[in-house]
Specification:
The chain is of the alpha/beta class. It contains 15 helices and 11 strands. β6, α5 and β7 form a beta-alpha-beta unit. It binds NADPH dihydro-nicotinamide-adenine-dinucleotide phosphate (NDP) and magnesium ion.
Length: 390
């Protein structure tokens, strides 16, 4: 660890979100092992100041520069450095006193901090799946073995199923999916669902964007692309299976027919903590699973036609190059529009598909190229949304 002390010094980027707050809870429960050094937010300066005081952090960053004059920032702990803008968030990731960076930012905005953490040789505890969807081709070659630990529950599960195994002898990955709140519905039933229906996830409590992605199954599509990069395989190697109870977090099937499954409570604090404790295991931060109360585990096939986003992500993940960047950016815009009430649930996949159709795929060459294509896809998605409304 950075200063030779037994504690792991962590930076939590996106500390006010669902993952960020659960990470802070892990840090509270393991205060003897974890030291929170730096925190970032987009705009929630009130909560940032309160966490900075609680954990006596040394540095904070606020991505949205419109908050530079927020009066509450005067109450940061003495000596705490405060900076603004997306660059300031990246600067936290490369600080000398940071060992491990948890990227719990939502959306493509997580890409540059993830890149900064890897190039600075930090451990990257990665919740932000969009980083890998958009820039996996650039990030993965930078990650040394054991440097990038996934936090997404399925990917943490797969990572653990592979421990001690020869990946060459794996037959396939079973990526489990809860099915979301609209499992079993028809396409025509989906036309009229509201954002409050879509925000009611059956098994997980998460931020708004990923909750909508879980309802459209875009989340599973993004996770397939995330897994392709993390585990260096083709998309076809990763099979999606609906596991309604969200107790099997994913599985790896080996050549001899043996299947390793990772089970546990549906609580993100467990994979967050694993990304900090790896290769060790610490006392659980969450209630343990009780198999006698679990009842049954069920398995179903996903419906790629009704949940069109799953199909679109398959097309993008198979084509690779810059298409996943377009898929992701268009989806971010469409999800926001759905949450604002300005488009329907099924318009989300219409917008994404239309942007993908309008894009000529290129191999990924660099961050500037991805940033330009991301910006183009956002403009294109906004135009498509306007067209749908007129
Ligand atoms: P939330 O929306 O709850 O939180 C997002 C966090 O990121 C907030 O701290 C927010 O700050 C900050 N943020 C938002 N936009 C920006 C930006 N442009 N630049 C810098 N910071 C920003 O998201 P979740 O915690 O649900 O998800 C975070 C990531 O983890 C996502 O990529 C998601 O897919 C992934 N994930 C989440 C899971 C979950 O259970 N929630 C499970 C598995 C993966 P502010 O409060 O100021 O807006
Ligand atoms: Mg997941």
């Amino acid at each position: 660890m950075a200063d030779g002390s037994p504690k792991l010094h962590v930076a939590i980027l996106g500390c006010t979100g669902s993952i960020g707050r659960q990470a802070l809870d892990v840090c509270r429960q393991h205060a003897d092992k974890l030291d929170v050094v730096a925190l970032s937010v987009n705009s929630s300066t009130d909560k940032l100041v309160s966490y900075a005081r609680e954990f006596s952090v040394r540095a904070v960053a606020v991505a949205d520069e419109a908050h530079v004059n927020d009066a509450v920032l005067a109450e940061l702990p003495e000596g705490c450095l405060c900076s603004f803008g997306p660059e300031a968030v990246c600067d936290l990731a490369i600080r000398d006193d940071v060992d491990c960076v948890l990227v719990a930012i939502v959306g493509a905005a997580g890409l540059e901090p993830s890149h900064a953490a890897l190039t600075a040789g930090k451990r990257l505890a990665l919740a932000n799946k969009e980083s890998l969807v958009v820039g996996g081709d650039l990030l993965m070659p930078l990650a040394k073995p054991g440097q990038l630990i996934p936090v997404d529950s399925e990917h943490s599960a797969i990572y653990q199923c592979y421990l001690g195994e020869n990946p060459q002898q794996a037959h396939c990955i079973w990526l489990t999916c809860s099915g979301g709140p609209f499992f079993g519905r028809s396409r025509s039933e989906l036309e009229s669902v509201s954002s409050s229906d879509a925000l009611a996830h059956p098994t997980w409590s998460m931020g708004a964007k990923i909750t909508i992605d879980s309802a459209t199954l875009m989340n599973k599509g993004l996770e397939r692309i995330e897994a392709k990069h993390l585990f260096g395989c083709d998309l076809g190697f990763i099979k999606v299976v609906i596991q309604r109870q969200s107790k099997i977090h994913s599985m790896v099937e080996f050549d001899d027919g043996s299947v390793m499954a990772h089970l546990g409570a549906s609580d993100m604090r467990i994979p967050i903590q694993f990304a900090f404790s790896y290769p060790d295991r610490w006392e659980t931060p969450a209630p343990r699973i009780d198999f006698t109360q679990l009842g049954s585990l069920t398995f179903d096939e996903p419906d790629f036609e009704t949940f069109r986003c799953l199909k679109l992500a398959e097309i993008a993940g198979t084509a690779g190059g810059t298409l996943p960047c377009v898929l992701n950016a268009a989806n971010e815009v469409a999800v926001e529009a759905f949450l604002n009430g300005s488009c329907s649930f099924t318009d989300i996949d219409r917008v994404v598909e239309s942007c993908m159709d309008a894009h000529a795929v290129e191999p990924v060459q660099g961050f500037e190229q991805l940033s330009d294509i991301d910006a183009w896809a956002r403009q294109q998605a906004t135009r498509v949304l306007k067209g749908l409304r007129s």
